């Protein structure tokens, strides 16, 4: 599966953005989809994951209550709605697909396909 992330940009602190990740070339509905991010000088970190049916979700503590992951399997697209953004959310955001069971966890090694990343910059 090929993944294409979009929707990043520059936003003021407290603002919102919605990221999208379009998939092609695979069985999208069978894969768990995740969002990760990497800030300058830091390791890539897990943000959120959603199961193939869309019913199961899991979030990093740092974004819980502010970010929402969702998917539209008819459109082969996963979304990340980001609210109450702050400077610490500034990063390149990556979407990723995992064919492993949802219970495998959120480590990036579980994800076998990655998008190219989209930059999110939050100004304070």
Describe this structure as you would to a colleague:
- 0% of the residues lie in helices and 49% in strands.
- The chain has strands at 2-6, 9-12, 17-24, 32-38, 45-50, 57-59, 67-72, 77-82, 91-98, 113-114, 118-123.
- The relative contact order is 0.32.
Protein traits:
single chain, 124 residues, mainly beta, seven-stranded mixed β-sheet, four-stranded antiparallel β-sheet
Q: What's the total count of β strands?
A: 11
Give helix % range.
under 10%
Distance between the termini: 37 Å
String of helices and strands: EEEEEEEEEEE
Q: What is the percentage of strand-forming residues?
A: over 45%
Shape: globular
Radius of gyration (Å): 13 Å
Largest sheet: 7 strands, mixed
Number of helices: 0
Q: Provide the low-confidence segments as ranges.
A: none
Mean pLDDT, as a whole number?
96
SS content category:
mainly beta
Short summary of the structure?
The chain is an all-beta fold. Helices cover 0% and strands 49% of the residues.
């Amino acid at each position: 599966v090929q993944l294409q992330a979009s929707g990043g940009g520059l936003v003021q602190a407290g603002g919102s953005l919605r990221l999208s990740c379009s998939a092609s070339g695979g069985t999208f509905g069978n894969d768990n989809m995740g969002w990760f991010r990497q800030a300058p000088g830091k390791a890539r970190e897990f943000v959120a994951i959603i199961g193939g049916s869309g019913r199961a979700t899991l979030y990093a503590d740092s974004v819980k209550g502010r970010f929402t992951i969702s998917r539209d399997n008819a459109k082969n697209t996963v979304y990340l709605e980001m609210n109450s953004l702050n400077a610490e959310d500034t990063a390149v955001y990556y979407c990723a697909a995992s064919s492993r069971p949802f219970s495998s966890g959120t480590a990036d090694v579980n994800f076998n396909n990655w998008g190219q990343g989209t930059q999110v910059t939050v100004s304070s």
